[in-house]
Amino acid sequence: xxxxxxxxxxxxxxxxxxxxxxxxxxxxxxxxxxxxxxxxxxxxxxxxxxxxxxxxxxxxxxxxxxxxxxxxxxxxxxxxxxxxxxxxxxxxxxxxxxxxxxxxxxxxxxxx
Length: 112
Prior knowledge:
Number of strands: 5
């Protein structure tokens, strides 16, 4: 079984996703119950991103409570809130599939 590599998300990632028209973001609890909190006591979340609202809603419908919120990177207040969550003072550590980092240098057209 192949394991997906993850990396800690940062503010630059949000702007990259926005530039790539992957504007809808959902933060979900880590699926591994052992890794839901880390050694620093922070809650571990997984950042999921979508280019279509309908796809984000489908994922959101599987979640409950505060984790069902869909952030829109085109909304300045949503972007600001996510930027705050990704800073060191946050109660959360947010991770994303490392595959998104490998696409950082590719132009948007090549990602479609």
